[in-house]
Inverse folding.
């Protein structure tokens, strides 16, 4: 089965379903969004959407209310197409252990989401995720999906991987493969079997090629739609992975095993 | 004609020619290289190649000798396939006006190269390119190709665009579209008709999509091989550009007009 392991809610929904169909994607692990850049018709409208996102990430807009609203949207969309979508739910950054656990019970488990994300700590903030690792462990070791492209440095990624080493039962999905730090990230995860590598936001095809060569069972195809087209993301992998059996695992088998689909 | 407007010399050459053929690319604007990452068989060998590159960029290896050697390699390879390749020649960063002019005459014009690059100033160093702009103007306004992905910040890119404004007869090719600063870069080049946008190293398909929408006559298809596969780079654009006439210009017409091919 071909599974897009990371895409955000897009509007209108018909367009997202159509894009999945065009790319031959049977299921999508769907993440909430607080903005809808896919509706922007030009760079000014796109910039306005991004500004809204930064206002939330930086706390100028209420991150809790925004995440509850985007969770409500995600729940409804998954409910409308349960055979196509599996949800991962958002959570505000910086909650205490108790607050994380309460949020997980109320907004993640109650909504039958299979994991938590997209988590996007800023530079120097990755350590704030530790109470969430603890709460996720208490709640049954839910997978965590963390954005590791810009603005994270490799120092931030090392903090994150330190948490993965400390909580080895929790699957950690390293979103976007460490960004420009992909090579150091690949070297650093060798002894961390609970770390999975998300292959979206590929700016050099060398990165996913080596990632898959080194970790064929821990690399996950995803589009990060609407930031990339699912068809483009799939065709990149089809062109760089020569082994058809490995390709099949990366395109769906690995995430299916991780989430018990 | 389909023209890959930016790729580096790859070894063995038969492989590069084969990759062009697979991607339906008729001509490639070929750039020198001081390393050959395409020969790396695993991440350790790839890391060794990158270390060699950083040693040259940081001056630990002699950047002048390395660039003369890579120019010699490029000259020979272009000479072996003059119907397939057009060369852009390298130049060390930080030369004076006179040194730049001497280098251009000796290593660029004498070798019939059509432009200069890849230039890769570090953070805070873009201003060091001004003597090169002056010398290029004196030598007939040769196009300059500048890497603008990491480690450049938008402050660096603004310095670079300031030089483009000051020397409006010199075509400046903004390599990799400004990287994570692509949106600010797109906004900043509106009144700079001598600035061209290179579409390689795409980590989000939104970036080239808006770049082409805003500047259909100034956007240039390229692979940046060996850092990305030419076929992948071409298929990304084919999937995101709905207008076939625009696509044809981006895939070759624009660079052909710029270089009078």
């Amino acid at each position: 089965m071909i599974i897009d392991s990371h895409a955000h809610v897009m509007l209108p929904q018909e367009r997202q379903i159509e894009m999945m169909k065009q790319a031959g994607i049977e299921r999508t692990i769907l993440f909430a969004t607080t903005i809808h850049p896919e509706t922007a018709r030009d760079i000014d409208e796109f910039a306005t959407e991004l500004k809204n996102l930064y206002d939330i990430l930086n706390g100028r807009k209420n991150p809790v209310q925004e995440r509850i609203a985007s969770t409500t949207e995600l729940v409804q969309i998954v409910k409308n197409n349960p055979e196509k979508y599996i949800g991962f739910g958002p959570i505000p950054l910086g909650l205490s252990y108790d607050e994380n656990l309460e949020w997980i019970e109320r907004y993640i488990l109650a909504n039958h989401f299979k994991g938590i994300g997209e988590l996007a700590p800023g530079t120097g903030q990755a350590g704030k995720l530790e109470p969430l690792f603890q709460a996720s462990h208490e709640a049954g070791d839910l997978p965590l999906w963390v954005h590791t492209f810009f603005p994270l440095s490799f120092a931030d990624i090392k903090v994150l991987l330190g948490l993965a080493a400390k909580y080895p039962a929790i699957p950690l999905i390293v979103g976007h493969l460490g960004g420009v730090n992909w090579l150091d990230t690949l070297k650093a995860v060798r002894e961390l079997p609970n770390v999975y590598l998300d292959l979206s936001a590929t700016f050099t095809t060398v990165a996913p090629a080596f990632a898959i060569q080194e970790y064929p069972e821990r690399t996950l195809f995803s589009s990060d739609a609407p930031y990339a087209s699912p068809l483009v993301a799939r065709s990149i992998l089809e062109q760089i992975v020569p082994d058809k059996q490995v390709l099949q695992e990366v395109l769906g088998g690995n995430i299916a095993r991780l989430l018990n689909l």
User: Anything to note?
Assistant: Chain A is about 45% helix and 15% strand. Chain A touches chain B at residues 37, 42-43, 46-47, 50, 149-150, 176, 179-180, 183, 186-187, 201-206, 210, 213-214, 224, 226-229, 231-232, 235-236, 239-240 (CB under 8 Å).
